[in-house]
Amino acid sequence: xxxxxxxxxxxxxxxxxxxxxxxxxxxxxxxxxxxxxxxxxxxxxxxxxxxxxxxxxxxxxxxxxxxxxxxxxxxxxxxxxxxxxxxxxxxxxxxxxxxxxxxxxxxxxxxxxxxxxxxxxxxxxxxxxxxxxxxxxxxxxxxxxxxxxxxxxxxxxxxxxxxxxxxxxxxxxxxxxxxxxxxxxxxxxxxxxxxxxxx
Length: 199
What we know:
Blueprint: H1 3-31, H2 50-55, H3 81-85, H4 109-114, H5 117-125, H6 130-136, H7 139-143, H8 167-198
């Protein structure tokens, strides 16, 4: 073989070795784990309640009151309107029954017919555990199925009037509320008996 042929063979051998080396590097790169891009946490600048407070402007300053500073124990995030009231539908502005509305007295028949006591209290109990409530005051157990939590508690004020109420004031509340209930029952009985007499 001539020198030219030997040089050609050497050149072909080197090219084959180079090609094999490049293919090996390419295979290593495809099997190596891909570099993970750095992750960034997105922080929302707009309030989660903005869609609510755009229309419910009267509630903007006092929205949630004590709840506004609370953490939802289910997701460890701040409490928002939708945590308690649910997600409004596109027809919300037309008065559709789509979000939870809470009654504000023991005789709020309209609200408890639309949103039964069990449903209203269920929202509260999704965060407020029964055991601490029972330990705080025995009346929680007694009233839990007969009254909404909002019959006694206010949801949006900065300071909840029922918290740390003195014992004498608590007794007065019981007496006043039960007196109103007895009057309502007497009035209902009187209407029933006067209706029967009219027939």
